[in-house]
Amino acid sequence: MDERRAVKVSKYLSKHLRHQPERIGLALDEGGWVEIDVLIAAAAAHGFRFTRDELDHVVAANDKKRFAIEGTRIRASQGHSIDVELGLPPATPPQYLYHGTVARYLDAIRAEGLRPMNRHDVHLSPDRETATRVGARRGRPVVLSVDAGAMHRDGHVFHVSANGVWLTKAVPSEYLRFPAGH
Predict the structure, then answer these.
(1) What is the per-residue pLDDT across 39-59, written as a single tens digit (0 to 9) for each?
(2) Beta strands at 97-102 and 67-70: parallel, antiparallel or unpaired
(3) Which of 4, 50, 152, 165 could be stapled to 54 by a disulfide with Cβ–Cβ 3.0 to 4.6 Å?
């Protein structure tokens, strides 16, 4: 499968497994899962055909591990804007986690902290490199440090998705460290 095709299938899956399953007639269960055969048939019925081999390739080769397969079912690992319960147990985070953003959002982040926006949770990275890549999707990245250890001690709950993304409901600004010059 060439890279362009893999990206196209991955974006299609993200759209319909994270945000708009109803657009192609899918009904995800409460955990966000759908039968793979149902997904493939629904996509084909709406003009986007892909094979099980292509799906398996996208799931296996995706560097961010955006999707999980369990038996005959598939779901997005996190990032949903629709109501799903991922069933992830609470987890103790490392002392520091990181969030990649761009400078134009820093004033709002200073004032309000990190909010989930149109997602269920704030997404945090386990290392600066990953956060840099996340922030670079919107421009020149700025990486914020999150004192996750202090948050956890203060009662904030964390979860970690199957692909290593740390999730929490919000990050109040007092737990954020901004890089020098920002």
Answers:
(1) 999 999 999 999 999 999 999
(2) unpaired
(3) 50
